[in-house]
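EI: anyone free to look at a 422-residue chain?
SC: sure, send it
EI:
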Amino acid sequence: MSTTDRQPRLGLRANLSQFCLLIAVNALIGGMVGQEQTVLPLLAEREFHLTGYTFLLTYVFAFGVTKAATNYFAGTWSDRFGRKPVLLAGWLLAIPVPLLLIWAPSWGWVVAANVLLGINQGLTWSTTVVMKIDLVGRRQRGLAMGFNEAAGYGAVALTAVLAGLLAAHYGLRPAPFLIGLSYALIGLGLTAVFVRETRGFAELEAKYHGAKHSGAGLTNREIFLRTSFTEPALSSASQAGLVNNLNFGLSWGLFPILFATTGMPIDRIGVLVAVYPAVWGVAQLATGALSDRWGRKHFITAGMLTQALGLALIATGDDFACWLAATGLLGGGTAMVYPTLLAAVGDVAHPLWRARAVGVYRLWRDTGYAAGAVVGGITADLWGLRAAIWAAAAITVASGLAVAVRMYETHPRAVQPDTDKV
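SC: here you go
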């Protein structure tokens, strides 16, 4: 439903067509990351002959830093200029990424491609998150985030498998990256022609928002400080999101290499790399909705501890079956955390500064990619691949315990007036 031709109505049912369209767009966004997951670590070793893990992980670091910073600006710009222009800009920047990866004569080109990919992901993924939160209102926020993240990370997994199969049959370049080029062109077309602006929905919700967490006139600096440090639920979500993506960034760079040390073929490595985001993606269809029913805090705590257990099993495993189970467990724990953290931020932030709060949260969360590259790369260089994974497991346990101690429950359990159907 367009906000320009009639009065908007909050709720999933009232906005189902636009919601489903944004789900499809977010799947294409996730696929842009999936094209790299299986192939780039192997490309680094086999074509560019990189041996130091720290240097190899520079592309993950570049992606994480640029995506984190862009998340912040995406939230600010979507409040100022509207959601759709930001989404369009993100898709325009996606088009050069697969071309740079195909033609890269040196590793520096790969790093440059990941700088662009980070900007693309920050602009597009952040904006689709905000747009879905705008549409559904407060009652189904967890469900909306579950569908959003399931689409994105399900596409990461499917594309990682497809890229691995193409690499096994046709080589590491160019075939796997032609998938990403197709995704970028389709995403740009869908956004330009069919996606509608949703900022009016946030303005409507603001009229009915309670006073508890209002502060509608907060400055950008005040929103940053609240979300990062001073507000217990928002800051707890920010640190847990950072650690969650530390694990994903580490897995992106090191898991394929660890699996390859056993002589495992590329197509089986592709399956193992894909299981983590596949379970993560599919399970979010349930976990997001369950957090609407059971609450956010305990789901997040349990999810972080489940991730730590999965990492411990990966660090001790040495065959396909063990790693398959461990990556599935890691994905399940991540599914409990990912949509729930976004829903918690949406619970607490006022609709008029929610996009900026989501941007700050995603800034910290996606700084985890860079943190994973640094922690994983340095630890692996000094003490080996398995030590790096053990370090991530320990950090994840600490994060889960911090949520248990500091975060309060953010989902409204009491019956309140149903403003989502206004």
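EI: The chain has 17 helices and no strands.
SC: 👍
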